[in-house]
């Protein structure tokens, strides 16, 4: 019977075959312990000299790390194993002997590992992070599908910028100039007017010259957009969504969280409602804390976000930002037109902003005025303005940065480990 490590519990007492790689091994005299990995998980296989053909035992003792094989044996319970089972080996059919695998069980430097990212992905730690990433994606679809959102795919090649125009990647589009999308939002607003509640999930690109543990050049964003939803309701959906994702990882990624030594008591505290402070309160708090480098009207840097987040053991919303430091499309605050109806969601433990969202301007004249203030013109923006012309309605949306969310939930320090092949300021390889 051919199976995988993930399903091994079903085969206790039975003989199975697994396609696997050798992650590690140790042996002494008459016994060899093989640490197998098969993509679905990790498991120990025990080869006892007297139970197998001579050549099989010889192979088990000499096989190199990352050699590939079909391995056959009986599944038995093993209380010490993290997965509860191990294999008593009957036979090994070598597929390829690996020679000089560069990533040995010893410690390697970050640059070396990043240069070998195509192989580093095979490690237990990277495997765990990728599985958590997958669970976040799966539970995102689950959350939005259960609430009647329609998945819509905005284009990647675009003519208009949604966020900071200095961070655009320019590409030739025949005779025109195009950009790689830095957010699907503008298109998602059009989609929300057609389908009501929509969400996208796709890659976005920012030519940011930031070299921090939170910045990637190419990252993936979840962008829900909702017609007839005002700011307050959007905040509630955001906190429910983030809570759902955290709960799903806690339920379905126990092995992975353990592999990463994640302190899950911190994740268990994530419950709705999330605390909120206004931008104004945040500035006041930072000044009281002794930050002298921040004034009303400034955007926050990582140290500011971290100082604010340290006050809470939950993600925290910072609301009501000055309009000057936010995007052109944000709805003014009804009590103070200098502020906009928006929020950034800051993750605990110093992981920074994981969501940026707002209510959008739906008034045609006001949007037109904002265009003029921001110097936006030309056909690339005309269609967006037109959305405010034909049955415009209040609507809100937000964008969750997948990699920062993976970093926070997994507890890994740097976003470079949260995406299979990170694109960084100084890295396009592999
Ligand atoms: O706050 P941002 O720029 O918001 C938008 O793009 C909106 N148009 C989204 C929307 O309302 N539909 O980006 C959203 C999130 C941030 O909170 C952050 O988590 C992530 O995207 N993000 C990055 N993640 C990794 N590397 C970068 N360079 C990032 N820039 C933003
Ligand atoms: Mg933002």
From TrEMBL:
Catalysis performed (reactions): tRNA(Asn) + L-asparagine + ATP = L-asparaginyl-tRNA(Asn) + AMP + diphosphate + H(+)
Keywords: Aminoacyl-tRNA synthetase, ATP-binding, Cytoplasm, Ligase, Nucleotide-binding, Protein biosynthesis
EC number: 6.1.1.22
Main location: cytoplasm
Biological-process GO terms, alphabetical: asparaginyl-tRNA aminoacylation
Subcellular localization, as worded in the UniProt entry: Cytoplasm
One Gene Ontology cellular component: cytoplasm
Sequence intervals crossing the membrane: none
Matches recorded under Pfam families: tRNA-synt_2, tRNA_anti-codon
GO molecular function: asparagine-tRNA ligase activity; ATP binding; catalytic activity, acting on a protein; nucleic acid binding; transferase activity
Domain Aminoacyl-transfer RNA synthetases class-II family profile: start-end pairs: 130-430
Subunit: Homodimer.
PANTHER family cross-referenced by the UniProt entry: ASPARAGINE--TRNA LIGASE, MITOCHONDRIAL-RELATED, ASPARTYL/LYSYL-TRNA SYNTHETASE
Similarity annotation: Belongs to the class-II aminoacyl-tRNA synthetase family.
Name of the protein in its database record: Asparagine--tRNA ligase
Organism per entry: Cerasibacillus quisquiliarum
């Amino acid at each position: 019977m051919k199976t995988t490590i993930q399903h091994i519990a079903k085969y206790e007492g039975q003989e199975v075959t697994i396609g696997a790689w050798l992650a590690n091994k140790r042996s002494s005299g008459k016994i060899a312990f093989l640490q197998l990995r098969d993509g679905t998980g990790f498991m120990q296989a025990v080869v006892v000299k007297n139970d197998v053909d001579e050549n099989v035992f010889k192979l088990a003792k000499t096989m190199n790390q990352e050699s590939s094989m079909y391995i056959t044996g009986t599944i038995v319970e093993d209380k010490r194993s993290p997965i509860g089972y191990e294999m008593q080996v009957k036979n090994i059919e070598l597929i390829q002997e690996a020679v000089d695998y560069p990533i040995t069980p010893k410690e390697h430097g970050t640059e070396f590992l990043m240069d070998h990212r195509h192989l580093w992905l095979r490690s237990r730690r990277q495997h765990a992070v990728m599985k958590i990433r997958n669970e976040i994606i799966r539970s995102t679809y689950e959350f939005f599908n259960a609430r009647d959102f329609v998945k819509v795919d905005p284009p990647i090649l675009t003519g208009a910028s949604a966020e900071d125009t200095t961070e655009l990647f320019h590409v030739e589009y025949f005779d025109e100039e195009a950009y790689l999308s830095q957010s699907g939002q503008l298109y998602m607003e059009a989609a929300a007017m057609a389908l009501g509640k929509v969400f996208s999930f796709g890659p976005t690109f920012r030519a940011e010259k930031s070299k921090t543990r939170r910045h990637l050049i190419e990252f993936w964003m979840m962008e829900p957009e909702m017609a007839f939803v005002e700011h307050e309701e959007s905040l509630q959906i955001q906190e429910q969504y983030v809570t759902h994702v955290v709960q799903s990882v806690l339920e379905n990624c126990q092995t992975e969280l353990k592999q990463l030594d994640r302190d899950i008591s911190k994740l268990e505290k994530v419950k709705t409602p999330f605390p909120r402070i206004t931008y104004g309160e945040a500035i006041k708090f930072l000044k009281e804390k002794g930050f002298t480098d921040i004034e009303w009207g400034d955007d926050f840097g990582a140290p500011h976000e971290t100082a604010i987040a340290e006050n809470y053991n939950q993600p925290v919303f910072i609301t009501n930002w000055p309009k000057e430091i936010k995007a052109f499309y944000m709805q003014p605050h009804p009590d103070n037109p200098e502020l906009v109806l928006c929020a950034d969601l800051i993750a605990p433990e110093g992981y920074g902003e994981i969501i940026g969202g707002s209510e959008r301007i739906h008034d045609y004249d006001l949007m037109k005025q904002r265009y003029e203030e921001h110097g936006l013109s030309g056909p690339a923006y005309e269609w967006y303005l037109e959305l405010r012309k034909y049955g415009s309605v209040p609507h809100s949306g937000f964008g969750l940065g997948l990699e920062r969310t993976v970093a926070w939930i997994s507890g890994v320090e740097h976003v470079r480990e949260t995406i299979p092949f990170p694109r960084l300021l100084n890295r396009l390889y592999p």
